[in-house]
Amino acid sequence: MNRNFKKQLAAIFNETNQEIFNTGVHNQKIEIMGNKVLIIASTKRMPALDALGEEYAGLVLSMDAAVSVKYKQILKEKLEQELDLKVTSLFRDYEPDIGSSCTVICFENLITD
Question: Cα(76)–Cα(58) distance, rounded to whole angstroms?
């Protein structure tokens, strides 16, 4: 697979994390399968959400959901603009207990060299 594409993708992913969470990813693994990209990353949770903890669990869940929606919106825009590729769907989940995220990006066309 095109190493340059993976480098560009990693940079955009990290930049988006810095923009939303004020910190980049600690590490990330990118796999490309046809028109799909899977990114497994270790990230840091926003300290404000950790501070709210179990006392405001409902609020924390709502904030997590809102941040995730905004994150996906920004990432999709950056990918389409900077890579000139149409994103058909983007899925993201974050596991706060271990600081791990999984992102699946589906592009309209195959990712080729």
Answer: 27
